[in-house]
Amino acid sequence: PRSVVRRQHHKRHCTCTKEAKHERRFEARIGVVGSVHADRIDMLLLFETAAGFGLFKVLDEGKVREEKDLGKYFSTSDGANKLVKLKAFSKFDNTTDALAAATALVDSKLSKGLKKFLKKNVGEETLALADSKLGSIVKDKLGIDCIANGSVLELARGVRSQLSALVSEFSGQDLSPMSLGLAHSLSRYKLKFSPEKVDTMIIQAIGLLDDLDKELNTYAMRAREWYGWHFPEMSKIVTDNVDYAKTVKLMGTRECAAKTDFSDILPEEVETELKDASIISMGTEINEMDMLNIIQLCDQVISL
Question: What pLDDT is attached to residue 122?
């Protein structure tokens, strides 16, 4: 019947249409992927050492962007050479240049030497570096696209572990003494040219002295108040807190003042006045336990 033929024809037409749409979608997908790979830009890793700046070409960018454990590729020198390759190296002329470059990197600044090195060796590539702030400066001043993330940090750690194998100039050399010397120079520089830290230490020292003065005054006032019940006239005669404490410790109760030599502590006229006042003092008697506690307070004042 005609109706059956029409249904079969319509079914074949729909099937062809679906297959055509599927083919077009597949072709479009291939075109998109192809354009992504066609527009892919190489990646360069900026790596700083105690001897100079190194620029490494990343041979397999996909592993850097996708892999989470890049350390396994740097377990051997062969694995490291398959992932990165040295493109350029700028060696420092002397320790002064190395210190200036290291100081600029610590402060996230673009030094003249690094700027010249990047201008000369980086073109359309993407620059991978550890410091995101420095990456922003490089992007603004040189127009170089930069990337800084956890994968880049892990890649830099791997390069550091196989540096002697990746850089022919370092083959068979121990870089530890060079790195240690630069670290010491940088530490001395930061200590010498950091006025904020010096000011902080001075402020803390002044604060500590103020705290000690408060403690000294507290102990001295306690000793004067406690011993004043026994010998009240002494507070006006001996005004210095340390001399007061030394006198009390040496004398003990006021009855011993007449036979005690205060020449090492008090001037002669003060000593005479103190002995005269002890004879006619209006203070109360004091027991042995109170006297021991007062002497302990005096020891704290003298030690402070």
Answer: 86
pLDDT value at position 191? Answer: 54
Cβ burial, residue 168 (10 Å; 0-12/13-18/19+): exposed
Distance of CA 204 to the CA centre of its chain: 20
pTM: 0.45
Q: Which two tokens stand for residue 82?
A: 């398959």
Parallel, antiparallel or unpaired: strands 43-48 and 52-58: antiparallel
As a whole number, mean pLDDT of residues 53-60 equals: 84
User: What long-range pairs does 228-236 form, CB within 8 A, spacing at least 24?
Assistant: 228/283, 229/283, 229/284, 229/286, 230/254, 230/283, 230/284, 230/285, 230/286, 231/277, 231/278, 231/281, 231/283, 232/281, 232/282, 232/283, 233/277, 233/278, 233/281, 233/282, 233/283, 234/274, 234/277, 234/278
* Rounded-to-5 percentages of helix, strand, coil across the chain: 65, 10, 25
Structural tokens at position 105: 């990197």
Report whether 128 contacts 45 (CB < 8 A): yes
